[in-house]
Amino acid sequence: MVISSKEVVIAPPALYLLLAREHLRDGIEVAAQNVFDKPNGAFTGEISAEQLKDSGIRWVLTGHSERRVIMGEQDVFIASKTQAALDGGLSVILCVGETLEVNELPVGDDSGCRLKSIQQREGNKTIDVVTAQLKAVADRTKDWSKVVIAYEPVWAIGTGKVATTEQAQEVHAEIRKWLSSTISKDASDNTRIIYGGSVNEKNCKDLAQQSDIDGFLVGGASLKPAFVDIINART
């Protein structure tokens, strides 16, 4: 169990944030899965950056694919939430990636909607989509020192499919190039870009060897013992 040389952040549902913070050892951080874009006010059910920080939660996710697709969060709103989190002293894992659309209502015994890719990758639109999502944040945020970018190809999330190492590296390299040309060379050199598309213990080592993949945003595999292998994929 190597772990000590890695930065590990756990993002449980909001109900378990404080419990996780209480029981996780020092050196493992906790992230909220969501944050509101206003510091205070009458916004029933929402959690502010200030409330998270007061509770010892130092990280938050913004722009996760499920927030974009299911909750209908748009790029501008996600950018506003990202800046609010940064203003509130939090570090942000900013998720970007190709989107999905709802294709059909539930079929048979399926409990959820069947989602169909818009074929953005096949249409060579991946980079356009991702950089547009990033630009919305860049229009508000100049300091990226507390931002980690997570690229998650939506067609690979929860499907068991994974982008090839070459596909993942290609997009990560383009994101780094975009950071250099749009933000700064310093941001390009120092912003971590992690991959989040059905990462597991079988594919993590090959992905970790790619020069622009700095880590992983892990979903279902984080609930299994093999999560430790993923954490230690880059030696």
List keywords for this structure.
235 residues, alpha/beta, six-stranded parallel β-sheet, two-stranded antiparallel ribbon, 9 helices, 34% helix
Structure description:
There is one protein chain. With 235 residues, this protein is an alpha/beta fold. Helix content is 34%, strand content 15%. It has 9 helices and 8 strands. The protein has helices spanning 17-23, 49-54, 65-69, 75-87, 126-138, 165-183, 185-190, 204-208, 227-231, and strands spanning 8-10, 28-32, 59-62, 91-96, 100-104, 114-117, 147-151, 193-195. The strands form 2 sheets. Strands 1-2-3-4-7-8 form a 6-stranded parallel β-sheet. A two-stranded antiparallel sheet has the order 5-6. Helix 4 packs across helix 5 (126-138) and helix 5 packs parallel to helix 6. The longest helix is centred in the last third of the chain and has 19 residues, at 165-183. The protein is globular, with a radius of gyration of 17 Å. The termini are close together. The relative contact order is 0.12. Residues 100-123 have low confidence and may be disordered.
For the largest beta-sheet, the strand count, sense and barrel status come to: 6 strands, parallel
Structural class: alpha/beta
Give the neighbour order of strands across the main sheet. Answer: 1-2-3-4-7-8
Provide the succession of SSEs.
EHEHEHHEEEHEHHEHH
**Structural shape:** globular
Q: Could you estimate the helical fraction of the residues in percent? A: 25-40%
**What is the typical, i.e. mean, pLDDT?**
87
Total number of strands: 8
Radius of gyration: 17 Å
